[in-house]
Amino acid sequence: MESSEYCQNLVRTHDRDRYLASLFAPETVRPHLFALYAFNSEVARVRESVSEPGLGEIRLQWWRDTIAAIYQGNTPDHPAAECLAAAITHGSLPQSAFQNLIDARVFDLYDDPMPSLHDLQGYLGETSSVLIQLAASILAGRSAQGAAEASGHAGIAYGLTGLLRTLPVHRARGQCFLPKDVLSKHEASPASVLSGRWGEGERAAITELCADASHHLAQARANREDVPAQALPAFLPVSLVDGFLKKLQRPSFNPFESVAEVSQLRRQWRLLRSAASKRF
Questions:
Q1: pLDDT digits (tens, 9 = 90+) for 20-68
Q2: What percent of the chain has pLDDT over 70?
Q3: Is the dihedral of CA 193, 131, 85, 74 positive or negative?
């Protein structure tokens, strides 16, 4: 299997929404997007591929060393790394962005609760927001620099919604991404989240976090004019946030027990509409 095919298949399997959004990019640029998203998938899935945090640390260190080698002109023999090297050259992508993303992912390896909403937004900025900005740079080059504000808010909206809709997955691993300060404000706690208690406090905390995601989505859209038309595919997955938040806030829905899903057909239709209207 060629390296480019490996990346495309990885993204298609593990990051379906970004895969579909990438199909709206020019065919010549898609391999670079798939390379970026394949790297992200490799790093984001480290916890589920190792049996203990120490092994995850080793895996992340390998990626740190790999990124450093790429910028030194020495690409390791790994399909995602080979394609990522070409994407980095094409988009003139900064090394610090990759290193910061990897460092942020260390949090995933452990069961420590997220301390505060500020910390969570920082984590999302280094993982979700930076991915949008890097993809925008691949698509639009230097003209994407003006989209940094939109990328920041869009990444928090998309990333936070993603964490909220996959709470059952994290609970099963003993992880709590819901910030302690938000939970405490509503007389809830990481322990109550992990136990699956769905009381008024937990419900209020989820409502507040959904509101925060909505706020950042609105801010991203307020800065939409700063996003070059060529960079739109990087932002298209953000158009799905509304549907996920609507599902999360249904009175009868318990996000601790069920993943907040929207049908694949509905998601594809939303992406198509957003691409056609050139709005996310």
A1: 999 999 999 999 999 999 999 999 999 999 999 999 999 999 999 999 9
A2: 100
A3: negative
Judged by DSSP in three states, 51 sits in: coil
Q: How many CA atoms does the CB half-sphere of 50 hold within 13 Å?
A: 19
Among the candidates 110, 145, 179, a domain finishes at 110
1 is in which domain, residue-wise? 1-110
Instruction: Pick the last residue of a domain from 53, 78, 110.
Output: 110
Q: Which residue has the tokens 């060529």?
A: 230
Place of tokens 């691949």: 138
